[in-house]
Structures are given as structure tokens and as C-alpha cells.
Amino acid sequence: MDVPLVLATQFPSSPRGARHARHLAVRRMEGWGYPPESDVSCAVALVVAELAANAVRHGRVPGRDLGLRLALDEAAGLVRIEVADAATTKRPPAVPPPSCPDEESGRGLLLVDVLAARWGCTPRDAVGKTVWAEVSTTTPDDGLLALGGLSPGTSARLPAGSETRDPGEASTADQRKDAGRSAAHAG
Questions:
Q1: Are 149 and 114 in contact (CB under 8 A)?
Q2: What percentage of the chain exceeds 90 in pLDDT?
Q3: Which of 3, 57, 159, 161 stands the most exposed, by the fewest C-beta atoms within 10 Å?
Q4: 91 Cβ contact partners less than 8 Å away, ≥ 6 residues apart
Q5: How many CA atoms lie within 13 Å of 35's alpha carbon, on the beta-carbon side?
Q6: pTM of the prediction?
Q7: Dihedral, 130, 59, 115, 20 alpha carbons, nearest 10
Q8: Cβ neighbours of residue 152 under 8 Å, at least 6 residues apart?
Q9: Higher model confidence: residue 158 or residue 135?
Q10: Helical (H) or strand (E) element with 91
Q11: Closest-CA residue to 51 (of 147, 166, 129)
Q12: In this structure, are strands 129-136 and 163-165 parallel, antiparallel, or unpaired?
């Protein structure tokens, strides 16, 4: 029996709903041939968990569900993850904010930024927004999963009007780290 290459469903906008979204994503990845312990399945599970948790925490509108859509593009070597919520005015930053080691939260978008080849946010037609991420399913020649980006020769189409963050671009946090390293070596 073939498993459809697209999953679209809704969950209550609650911590339990976010947890169910992650569990369903892992089951669907297994149906697509990626065992739960595989790097690809773990990366998808983490991205779904972070985006769904953000939708619950920052995008919850009483009486509205969160939407989850997973799509496997075998030709491009990508799994596209979309989490939709009803909050129109609360959008994620284009660049993940720097996190403080002592803080209990604030690392979710940093994880998404590392695990996804690309991620961004698009407005929904009726109300709300969709935060999306694309996770690579391909492995480079050395056999290790390229979680931080696409393998050579692959590309992905981006929806028109979407905001993106390419992990190859240096973030403000990366620039601060580099400046700190330079200052340490110079002294």
C-alpha cells in the first residue's frame, strides 16, 4: 500500500495538540521509509515540535486549531513542513534571536535554522500565517546527513511573497561569535 506523499491535518492549539503533531509526523516519516531513529525523521520531528510549540505559544487564537502539512518531494530531496495558526500580527523574526545560555526558552528558531535547508513565513489567505521549513532527505558523499542545507545540485522552489532565512547567511549571533573569536586571538 502506497503512503500519500502529503499529509494535511489539524490539531487543537494546545501543548497536547503540538505533541500529537510531532508524533503523527514521526509516524508519517516512517510510512515514507524514514525510521523514527533516522536523522531525517528526528530532524523533521524537532522542526514540527518547535513550529507547533511556537504556534501554540505565540499564535494561539481561542477556538482556532493549528494546521500541519508535511510534503515529501523525493525529486528535490526535501520534506516541507508547514504549521499554520490564526494569529496574523505575530510573525516570527526573519533571523532567529540570539539566545542566552541561562534562559529556559528562546532556542526553537535556532534549532529550525540549523536543521532546515530553508524556512520562512507566509500569510494565509483567510486569516493567520503559515511558518514553513524544508528539511533535506539527501546525504552527501561522506554518508552523513546534510541537515544544514541542500546537497549540491538540488534546489527548492519558494512560494511567491514568502520571507526566508537561508542558514548560509551569517546571523547577528554568528557575527558576534566571529568578532569575539577575532578579539580573543588578537589579544
A1: no
A2: 49
A3: 161
A4: 121, 129, 163
A5: 2
A6: 0.69
A7: -100
A8: 140
A9: 135
A10: none
A11: 129
A12: unpaired
Q: Give the largest CA-CA distance in the chain.
A: 64
Angstrom distance (rounded) from CA 100 to CA 144:
29
Calculate ∠ Cα 120-59-137, nearest 5°. 35
CB within 8 A of 104, min separation 6: which ones?
none
What gap in Å lies between CA 24 and CA 42, rounded to an integer? Answer: 13
d(CA 115, CA 55): 18
C-alpha cell recorded at residue 44 = 523533521
Distance CA 139, CA 89 (A): 38
Q: Do 65 and 17 touch, CB atoms closer than 8 A?
A: yes
Could you give the angle at the alpha carbon of 41 between the alpha carbons of 30 and 124, nearest 5°? 100
Count of CB atoms within 10 A of residue 98's CB?
A: 13
Read off the pLDDT of residues 8-66 as tens digits, 9 standing for 90 and up: 999 999 999 999 999 999 999 999 999 999 999 999 999 999 999 999 988 777 778 89
Contact, 87 vs 126, CB < 8 A? no
Q: Which of 76, 101, 81, 92 is nearest to 155 (CA)?
A: 76
Distance (Å, whole) CA 14 – CA 59:
11
- Reference 74, options 132, 33, 117; nearest CA is 33
